[in-house]
Write a structure and sequence with these properties.
The chain is an all-alpha fold and 83 residues long. The protein contains three helices and no strands. It has a domain of 32 residues.
Length: 83
């Protein structure tokens, strides 16, 4: 659809520069910006809390780094000598 909008001169200059820098069109920059703004206005869907079930044990063990997947796998397989 074709339409006419009025933009602040400085804003238009910045949008054109962004389009040139990213190798896209001014239309794409304006559309993407508008989509992003509109998506932030939509109410986020409330998700119900999810409970991760645990089996055996009493939760997280001391000195376990959940970000270290290799060490975590070793510990779960009993390869690190700790039980």
């Amino acid at each position: 659809m074709r339409t006419t909008i009025r933009l602040d001169d400085q804003l238009l200059t910045e949008a054109k520069k962004l389009a040139a820098d990213t190798g896209t069109t001014l239309t794409s920059v304006i559309e993407d910006s508008l989509r992003e703004t509109l998506s932030r206005r939509r109410p986020s869907s409330r998700r119900s809390k999810f409970h991760f079930p645990t089996f055996r044990g009493s939760g997280l063990q001391p000195h376990v780094d959940l970000d270290d997947t290799a060490a975590l796998l070793d510990r779960m397989e009993g390869l690190d000598g700790a039980n």
